[in-house]
Specification:
The protein is mostly helical. It contains 10 helices and 3 strands. The chain has a 3-stranded antiparallel β-sheet with strand order 1-3-2, covered by helices on one side. The relative contact order is 0.12.
Length: 249
């Protein structure tokens, strides 16, 4: 067999084994990457929203069905989420949702207080008129949800308010830091909003922050953001450890 025949034979073998070559290899790699990204976003969202409870084991078989991916892809996804601090991988046992102690939550809130103040100040400095109007609308919708005693809607608006402030700040680096501090507090914050009177206080704190941002008051926005997180921390101290929520699926 000459070199040309050998090369052709080798290429045929690669194709028979399903190994993509040339442009096909790049397309396949892009598809795989997109699939991993989609699965990461979905599993991250489910964990953030409490579909999976702290310490809940993440079983491969149902997860691959729900996410529409292979076991190998799932393992890549879980490795990425472990790096982000959302899950813990254990030898021969798979993954579980990471749980955080009350003391860890307090420490994270101290860090969050500093970053939230920075973001609030930047939002007051950089927000567009459209973003200011959007923040005002979110606060009013939260007020309507509170008046209607619609906890789920109120919680949704509470989260949207923080997202909109981050967007108004226009600082991707600060946004990344806050994202890394979000998950450990979800269960704690959800519990704290159930404390009698806390929903009303939280909305008043958001309104004060919104008004400072709308007015372009950098110092006032920073102060309001700090006070909001300080009160969340004080509420956590009253609540104690979180009550485990029912398993979502």
């Amino acid at each position: 067999m000459n070199e040309r025949e050998g090369a052709m034979a080798g290429g045929g073998s690669a194709r028979r084994e399903g190994t993509a070559t040339g442009p096909d290899a790049g397309a396949e790699s892009t598809r795989d990457s997109a699939k991993i990204d989609r699965a990461c976003r979905q599993l991250r969202k489910d964990i953030m929203e409490g579909v999976y409870s702290p310490n809940q084991r993440l079983v491969e078989a149902p997860l691959t069905r729900e996410l529409g991916i292979s076991r190998n892809t799932l393992r890549t996804v879980m490795a990425r989420l472990e790096y982000e601090g959302l899950i813990v991988l254990e030898p021969n046992r798979g993954g579980r949702v990471r749980s955080f102690s009350l003391e860890e939550a307090r420490d994270l809130l101290r860090v969050r207080e500093v970053v939230e103040a920075l973001v609030a100040g930047l939002a007051a400095e950089r927000a567009t008129e459209e973003q200011r109007s959007g923040l005002r609308a979110v606060v009013e919708e939260a007020q309507a949800a509170l008046d209607a005693d619609d906890l789920m809607r109120f919680t949704e608006m509470n989260g949207k308010f923080h997202v909109d402030v981050i967007e108004a700040a226009g600082s991707p680096k600060a946004a990344d830091v806050l994202e890394s501090l979000h998950f450990p507090l979800v269960k704690f914050q959800f519990q704290s909003v159930l404390v009698p009177g806390r929903k009303t206080e939280s909305l008043a704190e958001h309104r004060a922050l919104m008004e400072a941002i709308v007015a372009g008051d950098v110092e006032g926005a920073e102060r309001s953001a700090r006070q909001h997180i300080q009160r969340v921390r004080a509420t956590l101290d009253k609540c104690g450890p979180p009550v485990p929520l029912p398993v979502g699926r």
